[in-house]
Q: What sequence folds into this?
């Protein structure tokens, strides 16, 4: 603060009131005493912070609570909804439905007849006579081809063999062999037990060899004997031994055959994350892509099902008929509106594919030949991809539900002057957090203090748990968090909060549920200070005094009601800008007086102020400064108080604390009557 001294008025008053003496010889002369106020200022703690900016309705930078000053910063934590954070990561799986062992059309029966003339060409025919004993071992006779297949590799199957004796004599030691022709191998070796009487049929069901490739052409080898007949019998040319081979219930690994209509399927179970349990979720966003490949020469009607994706109670299903070696692709099928339903909560996801084979004699195959080539390795192969799923409603447990709360920095403007070296003893954040979800939330929160655009200090709040909300309202956590003095002591330009909530446990969550809250950082004014200077008072002397100035006495009256030490100083300079320069040679220190120590009570507050008065007579050199003043060369006199550092120790202040300084200059002027002064 700068002010002019009204010397003209003061000198006029002095001339009226002052006494004079006449000296002989010469003109009469006398001395006039003038007191000029230089400074008169009281610095209250409330005045120091009177220009503080309001942060919000919760408080100002500095507020008053009784006699205690409180440092305040407050802001809201904007509402953050669950939104798209209710999600499950993408997954995919494969179904490889192998054809496996297939049943073919039953081939039915094929037979062959061994005439007596073929078995024993030496016997007389078409006559009635005794028949001598005979034996036979004849070349193979070929069965009629089976129409149901061309060749097959058997996994299982059976053949019913029937041997009928149409000779008039019994047969003994009868052995029947069935052989494949290409390749050549023995398929059946059947000894007929005992005696096969005339007109008798022997039947036996035989297991066919497993893992053998057989074709549809077979041959029968027949060996045996007959005791003949001692009595005369008619041996006609039509007499024979007949063999019938009926194939049925064939399980085929591979082949070229007539396949009948039948189904095969495959189930796939995907294991979800061990930490996730989905019971029922409404999908609001997500899609499904899949490819179905018919890796066979067969026509398949394929049904693809996802039993855990339901819409109107029905599973996701697509049915498509695939030509041999055809591929069917679906891209980005919309799953919105489906439910992900897994009531058993077993962390599994099922998929199923069912293939219905078309009978190879169906006209759709487009040929007259009903035989088709196949192998158990043939398959209907399906690969599906489920994108990331976003839910509007979720029942279960997800360990990935994290809700981020990020604020724009709260800008703190107009930081009060005089607080640049503030170091508070303690600061507390009063937190109010609200949770509308039906589950408790673990909340991690941090404060960042910015100074000149950079992070100057951070504070991590210990993990908090916000209670679950319910129909009656949100869950509420109100807690005090101490330890934020490092944040306050940087006197930040702005404060930014970040937070992340993690949902805990199993329950129900909706995407419109949210977290929100507010905080209030406050600190009683128990603080330490570095060395600091209070706003100075500046007076301007611009009346020419010249040689009339005989003496100048400076006086300081100090009253200190602050729990702080320091000193008051009076400086002088013809250039007021030099006051801002440290140790400027253009500035003269006219007076410096320590602040008087106040009396403190047991709590460290000021009980009584320290009071001091000091007077100092200026030296001739200092007096010369005042003599040189004039309208063209004003003299600037600055009075200020410098507060000493508390050395890291905290002190306690009240709203009524203050320090005052009064400064005056007593000027003694020489006056004579010669009309020149």
A:
């Amino acid at each position: 603060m700068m002010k002019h001294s009204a010397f003209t008025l003061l000198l006029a008053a002095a001339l009226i009131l002052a006494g004079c003496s006449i000296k002989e010889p010469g003109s009469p002369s006398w001395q006039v005493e003038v007191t000029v106020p230089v400074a008169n200022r009281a610095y209250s703690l409330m005045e120091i912070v009177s220009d503080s900016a309001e942060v919000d309705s919760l408080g100002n930078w500095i507020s008053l609570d009784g006699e205690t000053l409180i440092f305040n910063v407050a802001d809201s934590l904007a509402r953050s909804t669950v939104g798209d954070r209710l999600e499950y990561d993408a997954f995919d799986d494969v179904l490889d439905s192998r054809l496996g062992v297939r049943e073919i059309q039953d081939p039915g029966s094929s037979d062959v007849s061994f005439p007596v003339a073929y078995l024993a060409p030496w016997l007389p025919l078409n006559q009635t006579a005794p028949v001598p004993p005979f034996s036979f071992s004849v070349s193979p006779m070929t069965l009629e081809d089976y129409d149901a297949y061309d060749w097959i590799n058997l996994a299982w199957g059976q053949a019913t063999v029937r041997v009928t004796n149409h000779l008039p004599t019994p047969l003994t030691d009868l052995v029947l062999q069935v052989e494949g022709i290409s390749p050549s191998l023995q398929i059946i070796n059947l000894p007929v037990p005992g005696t096969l009487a005339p007109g008798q049929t022997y039947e036996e069901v035989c297991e066919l060899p497993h893992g053998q490739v057989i074709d549809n052409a077979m041959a029968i080898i027949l060996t045996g004997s007959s005791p003949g007949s001692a009595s005369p019998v008619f041996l006609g040319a039509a007499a024979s031994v007949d063999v019938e081979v009926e194939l049925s219930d064939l399980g085929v690994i591979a082949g070229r055959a007539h396949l009948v209509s039948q189904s095969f399927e495959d189930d796939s179970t995907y294991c979800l994350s061990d930490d996730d349990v989905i019971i029922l979720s409404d999908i609001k966003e997500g899609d499904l892509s899949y490819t179905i490949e018919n890796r066979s020469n067969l026509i398949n009607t394929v049904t693809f099902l996802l039993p855990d994706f339901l819409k109107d109670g029905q599973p996701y299903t697509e049915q498509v008929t695939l030509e041999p070696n055809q591929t069917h692709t679906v891209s980005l099928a919309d799953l919105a509106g489906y439910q992900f339903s897994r009531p058993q909560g077993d962390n599994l996801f099922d998929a199923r594919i069912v293939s219905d084979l078309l009978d190879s004699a169906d006209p759709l195959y487009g040929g007259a030949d009903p035989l088709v080539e196949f192998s158990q390795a043939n398959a209907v192969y399906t690969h599906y991809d489920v994108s990331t799923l976003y839910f509007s409603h979720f029942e279960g447990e997800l360990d990935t539900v994290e809700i981020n709360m990020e604020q724009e920095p709260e800008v703190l403007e107009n930081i009060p002057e005089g607080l640049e070296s503030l170091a508070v003893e303690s600061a507390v954040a009063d937190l109010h957090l609200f949770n509308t979800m039906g589950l408790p939330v673990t909340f991690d929160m941090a404060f960042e203090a910015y100074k000149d655009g950079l992070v100057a200090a951070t504070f991590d709040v210990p993990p908090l748990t916000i209670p679950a909300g319910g129909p009656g309202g949100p869950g509420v956590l109100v807690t005090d968090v101490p330890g934020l003095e490092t944040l306050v002591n940087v006197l930040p330009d702005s404060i930014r909060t970040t937070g992340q909530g993690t949902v805990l446990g199993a329950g129900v969550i909706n995407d419109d549920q949210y977290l929100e809250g507010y905080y209030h950082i406050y600190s009683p004014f128990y603080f330490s200070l570095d060395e600091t200077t209070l706003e100075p008072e500046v007076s301007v002397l611009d009346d020419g005094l010249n040689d009339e100035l005989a003496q100048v006495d400076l006086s300081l009256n100090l009253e200190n009601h602050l729990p702080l030490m320091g000193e008051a100083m009076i400086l002088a300079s013809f250039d007021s800008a030099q006051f801002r320069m440290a140790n400027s040679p253009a500035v003269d220190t006219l007076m410096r007086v320590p602040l008087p120590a106040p009396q403190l009570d047991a709590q460290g507050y000021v009980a009584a102020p320290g009071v001091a008065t000091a007077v100092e007579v200026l030296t001739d050199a200092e007096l010369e400064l005042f003599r040189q003043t004039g309208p063209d060369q004003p003299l600037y006199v600055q009075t200020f108080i410098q507060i000493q550092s508390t050395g890291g120790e905290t002190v306690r202040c009240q709203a009524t604390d203050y320090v005052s300084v009064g400064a005056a200059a007593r000027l003694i002027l020489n006056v004579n009557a010669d009309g020149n002064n």
